[in-house]
Amino acid sequence: MNEHIVKAYEDELNMLTAECARMGGLTEAAVADALEAVVRRDQQTADLVVGRDERLDVLQADIERKAIRMIALRQPLANDLRRTVAAMKIANNLERVGDLAKNIAKRTIVIIESDPMVPLTRSIERMGRLVVTRLKEVLDAYTSSDLERAMTVWSRDDEVDEHYNSLFRELLTYMMADPRTITACAHLLFVAKNLERIGDHATNIAEIIHYEITGDEAIAAERPKTDPLQR
Amino acid sequence: MTRQRDDAHAQGVSTTISRASQAGPKVSATDISVFYGDKQALFDVSLDMPDRAVTALIGPSGCGKSTFLRCINRMNDTIPGARVEGRIILDEEDINDRGVDPVLLRARVGMVFQKPNPFPKSIFENVAYGPRIHGFASTKSELADIVESSLKRAGLWAEVADRLQAPGTSLSGGQQQRLVIARAIAVSPEVILMDEPCSALDPIATAKIEELIDDLRSQYCIVIVTHSMAQAARVSQRTAFFHMGTVVEAGATDEIFTNPRDTRTQDYITGRFG
After folding, report:
1. Distance CA A63, CA A20 (A)
2. Which among B234, B267, B270 is the top mutation candidate for probing chain A, defined by the most A β-carbons within 10 Å of its own β-carbon?
3. Are B112 and B184 in contact (CB under 8 A)?
4. Using the 8-state DSSP alphabet, how is residue B260 labeled?
5. Of B233, B265, B272, which is closest to A4 when you measure between CB atoms?
6. Coil, strand or helix: which one is B252?
7. Is the distance from CB of B47 to CB of B17 less than 8 angstroms?
8. Average pLDDT of B161-171?
9. How many CA atoms, within 13 angstroms, populate the side-chain half-sphere of residue A144?
């Protein structure tokens, strides 16, 4: 790719992408830490995740402001336009992921109050690790503009969905067997649901990367779906 | 909307710019080469321009877009040493046929230049001149009607109705440009060529011309050369990118500006080194 004739324009575009990548790193850490907090029953880590979420909100607002400024002042076109819009959309997705991570962390306090349910926690951990990996892969694909890698994440969204569906059934079994676990299980169900949605956001980001690189937005309609309600 | 665009390197392949709702192109250029003496300015350019739509020609200085525009109303005929090869079909007629009178052709294919060039006559006479010499009006009131409707269509009537006898040159730059557009449409053209019509105008006057272009689009085939990417994006439905005397890429404007196929197009419209 040739450089822009106007150097400051080139710098601003690079800064926008870099800030988005930085936000991605923080979001990824938030999800990993939130998962850690639930699995290890670690209130301190949970509090940290909740406290750090505001930073993500600030970053998202900043990226959005910079992208809008870029559109107003530089009128980006073609790949530059797609890059600007992609940064804005990815920041939005990451902000949502941050909120979901915060929500997971907040549930830790209730989950800690009940007795540990080891097999369930393991299932949550497996699903969580898978989601964190997906998020990491898609963010790596973003920073390296790697279409193939982004598409790998995109095509494997159903694995997360399958984990969620089986966890859902597992939780139901627990609750039916011992009603005293219902409170904790309900919270774990939300944790699982949040993880599943984080997986969806990773897939969204893969689609945004696809648009940024190819200019083709049609892919969103083709995503493989596993719908638990259709089973 | 169906679209077909030429491959990056398939120069000379016709770029069919047609919309499903429309029949064939209004103007169809095939393998146009232009020579100024020994120097070749255009190389086998083929481009279709649909009716009732704006086609924008973009590209760096010296890429041949103005040369191409001038082929469409045979303005290159007037340049000593200029030679044009290839075919330009307007409706079903080859405009370079021996039987075609260039003066009559230029009534069918009007042109607006970068710098407004009103005649050193009154506002009224500027617009009345064409219809009069082409015999479009048999009475004075008919002529006055043509002048009024042309000025109205050019969006200038309200500003000049009370001073039609004032010299055309007394108007502001933007008004003068609309005056020459009124002059062009007074002879009922089918095609309007515009060579950077707004480059000498301020943003308000530019906006008025752009609004006018959008308005005229419903009746004419408009071809506009512009150096402003933003203007091409705003006013046109089709865009052709010229580079070093060839058409690199032509297609729907929104596609060209969001997802160009050729890296040369991309580099040019995004302001990178070519």
Report:
1. 7
2. B270
3. yes
4. -
5. B272
6. strand
7. yes
8. 95
9. 11
Q: How far apart are CA B246 and CA B15, in angstroms?
A: 12
Instruction: Tell me if A71 sits within 8 A of A84, measured CB to CB.
Output: yes
Query: Which long-range contacts link B1-7 to residues 24+ away (Cβ below 8 Å)?
Result: B1/B252, B3/B251, B3/B252, B3/B255, B4/B251, B5/B249, B5/B250, B5/B251, B5/B255, B5/B261, B6/B247, B6/B249, B6/B250, B7/B261
Q: Which residue of B has its CA nearest to A82?
A: B258
pLDDT digits (tens, 9 = 90+) for B221-274: 999 999 999 999 999 999 999 999 999 999 999 999 999 999 999 999 999 865
Residue B141's SS3 state is helix
Query: Strand, coil or helix: what is B213?
Result: helix
Contacts of A2 in chain B (CB under 8 A): 267, 272-274
Taking CA–CA distances from A7, the nearest residue in chain B reads: B272
B194 Cβ partners below 8 Å, 6+ apart?
B111, B112, B213, B222, B223, B224, B225
Q: How far is A75 from chain B (nearest CA, A)?
A: 8
A213 vs chain B: nearest CA distance in angstroms? 10
Is the pLDDT score of A153 beyond 80? yes
Alpha carbon distance B88, B48 (integer Å): 9
ipTM of the complex: 0.72
pLDDT for residue B8: 36
pLDDT digits (tens, 9 = 90+) for A59-110: 999 999 999 999 999 899 999 999 999 999 999 999 999 999 999 999 998 8
Between helices A43-74 and A7-40, what is the axis angle to 10°?
A: 160
Q: Is B224 helix (H, G, I), strand (E, B) or coil?
A: strand
Specify the pTM. 0.80
Q: Do B230 and A75 touch (CB under 8 A)?
A: yes
Query: What mean pLDDT value characterizes chain A?
Result: 92
Q: Where are the beta strands (DSSP E) in B70-172?
A: 82-90, 93-94, 109-112
Query: In Å, how far are A86, B177, B206, B225 from B228, measured between CA atoms?
Result: 25, 17, 11, 9
Closest CA to B223 of B77, B48, B93, B105: B48
Please give the C-alpha separations between residue A204 and each of A15, A22, A153, B140, in angstroms, as whole numbers: 22, 18, 10, 68
For residues B41 and B47, what is the distance between their CA atoms, to the nearest angstrom? 16
Residue type, B41: A
pLDDT band with cut points at 50, 70 and 90 for residue A161 = very high
Model confidence pLDDT, tens digit, residues A209-230:
999 999 987 776 676 555 555 4
The tokens 């209730």 sit on which residue? A110
Of A3, A75, A81, the CB nearest to B273: A3
pLDDT of residue A216: 87
Beta strands B109-112; B246-252: pairing state: unpaired
